[in-house]
Amino acid sequence: MNKKRVNEWILPAKNAIIANGIPENGVIDKTFRGQIATFGAAVVMGSLKSAIAFFAEQNKSSVDRPKLIKAMYQIIEKDHKKAETTQEIFQYVCDNYSYELVEKFTDASIALKLAFNFFELVDDPKKYKDGKLIKSGESQGDQ
Predict the structure, then answer these.
(1) Is residue 141 domain-resident?
(2) In angstroms, rounded to a whole number, what is the distance separating the alpha carbons of residues 133 and 97?
(3) Does any domain span residue 33?
(4) pLDDT of res. 100
(5) Is 113 helix (H, G, I), strand (E, B) or coil?
(6) Of 104, 86, 114, 133, whose CA–CA distance to 17 is shortest?
(7) How many domains does one find in the chain?
């Protein structure tokens, strides 16, 4: 882990969270934070390539894991070139694979986890509108 890089990437991580549509109704499903920890473990126990391949698909996850991969890629890319698909990101990793790239993805995942602290993390974002809990009896369209 490069502490200096992680610190420099916290604000870009916050921006990547927003740019990739991770907040829903003004809040973030707290499961995203756990998925970031899972990503780190997948890199350590397997490889960056296998972690990217695993997170590239939604499968049965309750949150949209590909958004996390896209956010990490956006943090790493200096020109903030946005990848359209996780397959493009996987190809980028395969073409540029190095210890340095593994470290960058690890640092980006740490910066993302820290940047989640700027948002309210909740169990069910569907119960919120514009970051506020919807009172019982109100629908999202009532406010």
Answers:
(1) no
(2) 44
(3) yes
(4) 95
(5) helix
(6) 114
(7) 1
Domain annotation covers residue 62: yes
Domain range holding 38? 3-133
CA triple 83-76-101, angle to 5 deg: 105
| Buried b or exposed e, range 92-110, using 16+ CB within 10 angstroms | bbeeeeeeeebebbbbbbb
Rounded to whole angstroms, the Cα distance separating 119 from 136 reads: 23
Residues of the chain with pLDDT under 70: 58-60, 79-83, 125-128, 130-133, 136-143
Residue 64 forms part of a structural domain: yes
For position 143, what pLDDT does the model report?
47
Nearest of 112, 98, 9 to residue 47 by alpha carbon = 98
Look at residues 49, 45, 36 and name the one whose alpha carbon lies nearest to residue 75: 36
User: Pairing state of beta strands 121-122 and 28-29?
Assistant: parallel
Give tens-digit pLDDT for 87-122: 999 999 999 999 999 999 999 999 999 999 998 877
Structure token pair of residue 116: 């989640």
CATH number at residue 31: 1.10.520
For tokens 């921006």, name the residue: 15
Token duo for residue 8? 């420099």
